[in-house]
Amino acid sequence: MSGYSVVSDEYINDIFAGSNFGEKINNCVQEKRKQLAKTLKNQVDGYWSGHTAYWIAVNGGFLHDAKSSSKKKLTALGVAFMNEQLLGGQ
Q1: How far is it, in rounded angstroms, from Cα 14 to Cα 8?
Q2: Quick check: 65 and 58 in contact, CB under 8 A?
Q3: Phi and psi (nearest 5°) for 63?
Q4: Rounded CA gap, 51 and 48, in Å?
């Protein structure tokens, strides 16, 4: 990889600020990226991720907010982030 990332580590840390996912995730930006990717995948697949994880995804600009009974869709940023994760990016 060229070192380029769709979303900076600083942005990831900012959107997770004030949340508590446990020491492993709280202290590692790579684990935060994994948690965000898991949340996005779960949402698109129709599974609930928890209130905090959901709002990090929505407020971070990765997921369109929708009623709990409706299919969730990624934003363009969410698609780019997930593609990067699948390719072994940041």
Answers
A1: 10
A2: yes
A3: -140, 135
A4: 8
Residue 2 within any structural domain of the chain? no
22 assigned to some structural domain: yes
The dihedrals phi and psi of 10, each to the nearest 5 degrees, come to -60, -40
Please spell the DSSP secondary structure of 11-78, one letter per residue: HHHHHHTT----HHHHT-HHHHHHHHHHHHHHHHTT----HHHHHHHHHTTSB----TTSPP-B-HHH
List the domain range (segments joined by +) for residue 68.
9-86
| Residue 3 belongs to a domain | no
One pLDDT digit (tens) per residue for the chain, 90 residues: 445 689 999 999 999 999 999 999 999 999 999 999 999 999 999 998 899 999 999 999 999 999 988 899 999 999 999 999 988 754
pTM: 0.90
